[in-house]
Every structure is written in C-alpha cells, then in structure tokens.
Amino acid sequence: MISIPEFITKDIEDEYIRENFKRLTKFLQDFPFFRGEWIFKEFSVTSAVTALGITHGLGFRPTDVIQTSVIGAGAVTFNFASFTTDTINITTTGACTVRCFIGAYKEESSRGGR
Fold this sequence. Notes:
Layout: H1 15-30, E1 36-45, E2 49-55, E3 64-71, E4 76-78, E5 87-92, E6 96-105
Antiparallel strand pairs: 1-6, 2-5, 3-6, 4-5
C-alpha cells in the first residue's frame, strides 16, 4: 500500500527545519494521491479477453483505477460493476500489458476534515 512517510520531528532542534517538516507532512496529507488506499498492479494478457478477473489483494472492493500505461496492440476496459473484494474485472481487445494503481480515493472529510 502507498502511504505517507512519517517524519519524526520532535528530535529536530532547529525550529525552522522542524516547521518545514510539519508543513511537508501537511502537504503530503492534502495531496490527492495519498487520500485513500492504493496498490500498484501490472498484468499481461496474451489475447483478447472478456470479463477476466485479476486478483488485487486489497481486502476491500476498489472503486478507482488510475491507468498509467497499456503496452501492446490491445486496449483495456475496466468493468467496475464487476469488481469484488478479491478481484478487478477487465476486458481487452488484444494482447497487452497494463500498469495501474487500484484502490479507493477518499475525500478529506473521511480523514477527519478541516
């Protein structure tokens, strides 16, 4: 899972450096990609497939996919309605390798809000 790094600021003696680390932490918390739970997945198919389940290992039903690339002759469609707590579901038009982030985006308010 992708998560925000935890900076230990209590041991930083210089107040300006300590404040900069606190601001950096806040920036990362507000960055949309860190809102939610995500994994990176790469998978390949050797021909066109219809409604193929791909295991994701998240432990919950993902609601979002950020596709980073498709390599090869095929195109991919994510069948969101068929996602489960164990698998995502895809259809492709031909052989391809797909790279993507799979997870669930969460709004600020779900993390306590401002």
